[in-house]
Fold this sequence. Notes:
7-stranded antiparallel sheet, globular
Amino acid sequence: DNEKMKVRVTGVEMASSMARLARMTVHANGLSDTVTVVEDHSMDPNFVLDDARFTDSSPELASSNGVESVGAKADICTSELLESGLLGEGVLPSLRDAWRRHLKPDAVVVPQRARVMAVLVEGLPLDATIGDEGVGLNSATAFVGPNVDIFSKVSHGVRLSTSAHGESALLGEALVPIHADALLGDHSERKLRPLSDPTQVLGFDFTSECAIPPESGRSTLVNVVPTAEGTANGILFWWELELIDGGIVYSTEPMAFANDKSQYEWQDHWQQCLFILGRETKVTKGEIVELISRHDDKSISFSIAQAARDRPNQRRKLNEDGNQSIPSEMNKLISPFRALQLNDGCRTRTYSQSIQYCLNTKGGLESPVLDLSDFGMCGLIAAQLGARSVTSLESSSGNVPTIAAMVAQLGNGLPKPGAAYQVIQAQAEHIAVEHIAGGSPAEIVTAEPYFEVLEGWHVHEALNLYYLVQSLKSRGVISPAALCVPSYCCIMARVVQFDDFSDAYSRVGNEDEEIHGFNHSKVNHFGNRYRKYDVALPLWQYSLSRLSEPCRISRLGYEGGGEGHSNVVDEATEIVVSKRGVACAIELWVDYACRVGDGDSFKTVSTSSPAGQQLVRKLHEHVAVEVGDKFSIKTRFGDDPIESFTLDIEIP
């Protein structure tokens, strides 16, 4: 009984839309006099409980609940400032500040503690999906890079390095949130082999200010005994939360390590993390490995020290008091999944062959080349093939344009004598034909395509490239007769049974939309819209059943006019079910057609590979289907290049 207990709750939410939704939900449950939602960050120096700047609370209302109106201290603090790597959402600085300014000395926090569990893992060699030049890459190291020598072989000598003979400009350690069971299963195409049992490597206590680690972080050393011989390429880790002393424990442990697999509940919001070591280490079964775990307020990282033989298996403190923190050089230039793209030898080789064909077809190396992708990979390839006028348009506002220029100039010696190679950091609408190297309209347009702000959203990347090309053609920056790499793309689809996805991305609560008596109808009204919007997922990490063969539902042409040039698809496409099941969603991806010879000689670069992510569109309802059943899908594109991508789906 809130009245008898004199309870007053302040909820702090940074995101405006979420704060509004929280207020609506509170109101729907009749708790507006008890719960106040504040749109702010709890670490704002000016924020205090019941802050009159953000609420309608009056001193009378506050005092009637038995608390002061401003500057009150809380008895209980709950938080869910967590992500797959545990620390990235700021749980440590937020709770440290809460203890200093917002909580009573005897306050109770939930959660109270966290533990980090870790396993040494070896990445096993990749299969042919990476290409013949993928030798040396494995399921762990493919997330870092790319490998300079491998990339050079498939790109006519392009070295992704900032020095003429140096290592990759993009190499380093990497932290990869991942569904680890996809890499641990017996039938996984991409496989990690555990080399040790799970071991606790870090612990966090949130129950007082002095218990929370300092801002400088800590480094701890744990002696790990390998259970198998192999090469440690990375550390697989996850975390456990102790919500209440001796009470409820929540874990992100992968099912492969769960003691009771029958009680395992799949989740998609928190995954495990694979930390790729900057230096691999050979380990021997039974011989102790010293694993150094370190953290600051934002992230956790690892390294392996020299093996210490014949020491007891115990945890040793390096600097538990935080007086010294071992720095970690994380790979911050590209994402792990961008590294997968750049390490895909088949993908790079196809683009190289297509660029070579276009240069030959246009009658020589003088044709101006315009690359429209961030990082300008295809422009680098064109320059190495001898193109004498190359312009790389960089739309990213981050570090990518700088790295692209360094790789071109320092790693590849561009421009070559007598040639022009330029990197322009600008939006496409801001350039004119005089900005193109050579001063005339581009005759060859290249793109992977890759756009940093759209990473993983490949249908949107394909549309973005389409509208960029059409806009630049209309303003004379690109020749109407220009050849493009790729020449066109097909948006592909198939019907899938995806039970985990349907459960995770659906309405919450029971049939009355309640969780423990708290009504969530407002949450469901705004949140259960995945039948209208897509989710981008690396589907190789998920368990699903594909119920139809791939089917083309749209085609976008990047060259000239005619078929594929229009951005409107008039005819609906039928997808025929080839496997019995329960249809839950439509899987979408893009196949890029790259011309490598005369006539209909094309090769395909597909975002259906593990180097890409796929879009998932949820059906309005689950549908039991039989072989031969048909789904009708019509794709519509509006005037807005990105937002007006619509699927009209008719189910059997």
